[in-house]
Amino acid sequence: MNKFSIGVDLGGTNLRIAAVDEQGKLVEKVTLGTKVSLGRDHVIGDMCDAIQRTSEKFRDTPLLGIGIGVPGIIDMQTGLLRESPNLPGWADYPVRAEIERRLKTIVILENDANVAALGEKWLGAAKDFSDMAMLTLGTGVGGGLVLGGAIWRGANGMAGEFGHTTVEPEGQLCGCGNRGCLEQYASATAVVRMAREAIASNGGPALARAANSDPEFSSKSIYNLAVQGDEDARRIFRYVGRCLGIVLSAMVNSLNLPIYVIGGGASSAWEAFSPSIFEELRRRSFVYAATAPHDPMATNEGASARLEAGPGRKTIITRALLGSDAGLYGAARLPMIAEARR
Amino acid sequence: MNKFSIGVDLGGTNLRIAAVDEQGKLVEKVTLGTKVSLGRDHVIGDMCDAIQRTSEKFRDTPLLGIGIGVPGIIDMQTGLLRESPNLPGWADYPVRAEIERRLKTIVILENDANVAALGEKWLGAAKDFSDMAMLTLGTGVGGGLVLGGAIWRGANGMAGEFGHTTVEPEGQLCGCGNRGCLEQYASATAVVRMAREAIASNGGPALARAANSDPEFSSKSIYNLAVQGDEDARRIFRYVGRCLGIVLSAMVNSLNLPIYVIGGGASSAWEAFSPSIFEELRRRSFVYAATAPHDPMATNEGASARLEAGPGRKTIITRALLGSDAGLYGAARLPMIAEARR
After folding, report:
1. In 3D, which of A113, A35, A38 has the Cα closest to residue A73?
2. Is B311 within 8 Å of A147 when comparing Cβ atoms?
3. N or C terminus of chain B with fewer C-beta within 10 Å?
4. B243 and B270 together in one domain
């Protein structure tokens, strides 16, 4: 390889570091646990050690820079982490300054949902597109918007929070203060809550059995029941798809992007919720109705057909392709974009 | 003046033509009725005659071009009007080619809500901003998005349709096919419908009196009752504000723009509905809560304070300033932007 950069995915559970070359080839990957309980200094120390070991390995190749995806809102000017529910005690911590001090090099911080979007845009489902949006269905619902090939950060670096679009104006209270956010109906957490609600109202015998027998009763367990044909489990995923469809309809009508990518752990239940997404989109978005592909679920159409310009261009709603590596690739991409702009 | 361009606002009722110089000075304005019933050839003929008379008047000044705001979806490649509820019989009519043939010059067509946004961005409420969105509350609810100083048209030229964001998933059926669109709760048409609903359920004695005595019972009549303190009329505008607040919350969370402008005829009821907008925004958008100005309704803050960069930058929600001229100025601006890009 000619040049490379280091991407870091700093999650609440895992800390992952990768060396990626300019063609998007991952040449080295390290996965560590994020020892959140030992405090931020310890976590930063682990991260910097791993970054140094990785860059040492490729010492003969020019390092373009270091990009780090962080779960929280980052103040891009100061490099402070303003808020991070998954990294308690990190609020207002000068993350960037501390890492730069230890590594003696410039690093770029970015919100984790934004880097996931950038990863899918660079090498994943939205590879052929310069404008795209991504929804990441995990503990919450993250969002990222890429316009003209670059992350759209907005006036305060807070753009892309599609997960906090209101779906049910008087619905479930959300951690953000709103009621009825998409996150309350389409995250892995929401799937489990809706299953427990169904159980509590005697609405799901199979769900109840699974909840009692499975110590890690999760959205994955509920998806397995849906795959086995359990109607109560299937109803939950239809509701997930309905809520995603309502928000995607608004996104399509407002932004008219060529592609919307759905990723994150809970997107593995795609088969269970996606038919409802397309049903809602056809009904709720006249822009989608006018631009829907012949077979919306066939995501492997030729890139050229998908990229057909102008009025005939199609609106693609599709699964993410890079899985949990999206953020790692996106983070590694950050210094390359910065380099290209220099 | 050094150079000028001609802006046209082709509405379902009025046809307006203006000559505007590069500094945004309106040097000539002509208002004609749009004789829709005489057919599209007649309307195009009236328009071209008025454009020619106007350009003749300034024959010694270089004409930069002609921009036309049209109520409908325009295919930018072919210049066809794809759909236009207010111009029946115009669908798939080659508007641009026909005008260019008659005038023997190049014209630029654009959606009317988009040109209104561009007008407010150039000379109105969003003058100091390069990124902004506008909602136009009229017969329907139009929307326009300006990013980096240019209209964001999306992959098919259909972006900006914020008026068709779902507010009530099982609410009022909309002309677009969806249920519960913002347009069904925040347009002038919706205000009248909600008043008639209140009357039908015996909920508005003053509204009923006004509806019976006023042959042109309109959103303006209902606003007048609200100003006089009629609680039933006031409740309707609170609901308008609530629905606008729900959609603006999603826009703020998704796009994090520095300014959102609300215009159109029904925005004259600003005093009646805007308090509810701000109430919803504070509650529903954590991005707004983090960036709200000290006094959100004081729209005459100094531009420098409003433009403060970075994390301290404020989110402004404000009334449009140019009234019905926004579209005329925006249309005139189109050839200037095209010229600057050449």
Report:
1. A113
2. no
3. C
4. yes
